[in-house]
């Protein structure tokens, strides 16, 4: 069976993890954690990056920094993982789901402003498949209404929008380093802060609401409880694994891109004849080859395709069930406007195997299996 995903591994991870174990500090904010954060500060050009236990934790910190009050409204797409919503539900916010664009599967920027009310405080954008949302329009709406923008860039490490790296454009920006992402630390994430004025509070929120980090830097003579927070620091062992990935970042990304491009070239004929749809990359957007998906005609065809691929040793999967149709989505939010594309498009999408180290032989097997399915129909 050709797996849908295999976590990235470049070979130096065990060495760095052993070093983390031997240096006497495997809890949070150890040497590898600091090394990773400094690397990302340089790479993203931001003044502050904090590793977290997950992308979910990064979103929770973003929600805390947004100063939401019970009853405040947050605009977001329904086509996303539940973590995007949960972080804001925890703060008592009401979710307002907006339809997506069928071409990118991202929130439709032209529908956001109509969903804004006097209770709206935050717009959350999710860069699906590492392809940027239309950020100029969204930032303009946020500026007109005094709203914060949170980037859920969990899938978008290395992607950019008009020359700006995703994860640097919003007020608070969140990454994931789960094992399904381009770079991994097993479980982990990061929050990026383009504005340095949020650094101290984010650090306190991440350290259980205390100024413990300032104490260890010798800036205070004792640490105390300062604000609401939680234990969001990952182990330095996890950070050591991530450090190996950061060192090999270009190698990993190039390998994934080779697979993405091979798929895109191979399926051009099927897309050109309208048998399937393939990813669309808007002008000004540079993606990171996080995933390659195709869209079948409908749910029935998608189900048949996934089963056919499984019978031919290919593990392909569908993605999110729209949040607004889930029990928690019905309880915590509402859909604004018409659901023209969210449910329809999500029911058509199939994700193909794509990971660092996928062999050319396996890649060609996937391509052949997809083509045989459509050739036989």
Care to describe what's here?
With 377 residues, the chain is α/β, with parallel strands linked by helices. It has two domains: 13-247, Aspartate Aminotransferase, domain 2, CATH 3.40.640.10; 249-375, Aspartate Aminotransferase, domain 1, CATH 3.90.1150.10. 40% of the residues lie in helices and 14% in strands. The chain has helices at 13-22, 31-44, 55-65, 82-89, 109-115, 135-145, 199-206, 212-216, 236-247, 249-266, 268-272, 299-311, 327-332, 342-346, 360-375, and strands spanning 48-52, 73-77, 94-98, 120-126, 148-152, 160-161, 164-165, 172-176, 189-193, 285-286, 293-295, 333-335, 349-351. An eight-stranded mixed beta sheet has the order 1-9-8-5-4-2-3-12, with helices on both faces. Strands 7-6-10 form a three-stranded antiparallel beta sheet, with no helix packed on it. Strands 11-13 form a two-stranded antiparallel ribbon. Helix 2 (31-44) packs across helix 9, helix 3 (55-65) packs across helix 7 and helix 5 packs parallel to helix 6. The mean pLDDT is 96.
How is this structure best summarized?
With 377 residues, the protein is an alpha/beta fold.
